[in-house]
Specification:
The chain is mainly beta and 180 residues long. It is 4% helix and 74% strand.
Length: 180
């Protein structure tokens, strides 16, 4: 939208909004004693969106973007020290990532005459990631509160058009890719 505003040469007002980002994670793990204290599978779902609007007296142009990320992978924990209900240790994860992006351009003019048009595009990307780090965890029967401090590395592909891999999302001749 910023590019469109600058190119127009008009005094346009820009409004942007970013909602909260839900993050859901589901794990199936086996807790054991020994060198590895927990291992298993996980699935993570992330979703967020944004709207950017430029407008003046004649109408408005909206750009909506909704992105959905899915991860499926393996997780391993090793507890270094345990004191009562508090424990800390190291963890490692590896995952396959699938990202989908839907963009919609919406034009609504009210002057000099009423006009509306909308155009949507769907993109997708695949990749892999790994994460290593430390965790601090508080256990209360079957509930856990946990904080991870780690480094995540990912190899993610371009955001290709869903129905045609000859085209992908780019800005200033640089391919846009999802972030881990």
């Amino acid at each position: 939208q910023e590019f469109r505003r600058k190119e127009s040469g008009l005094s346009l007002q820009t409004t942007e909004s970013y909602p909260i980002t839900p993050n859901y994670r589901f794990e199936i793990t086996n807790n054991v004693t020994g060198s590895i204290n927990k291992y298993g599978l996980f699935y993570t779902f992330n979703s967020t969106g944004a709207r950017s609007t430029i407008s003046d007296y004649s109408g408005r142009l909206d750009l909506d973007a909704v992105i959905i990320g899915n991860q499926a992978g393996i997780t391993i924990d090793h507890i270094l020290k345990k004191r009562n209900l508090l424990e800390y240790g190291i963890y490692a994860e590896a995952a396959y990532l699938r990202t989908r992006l839907k963009t919609t351009d919406y034009l609504h003019l009210i002057f000099p005459e009423e006009y509306e048009e909308a155009e949507s595009y769907r993109f997708k990307s695949n990749g892999i990631s790994s994460e290593f780090g430390l965790f601090l965890q508080y256990n209360l029967e079957h509930l856990r509160a946990r904080m991870n401090l780690g480094y995540q590395f990912g190899l993610l592909g371009k955001l290709y058009l869903s129905n045609d891999k000859r085209y992908w999302l780019a800005l200033n001749n640089y391919s846009l890719k999802p972030k881990c």
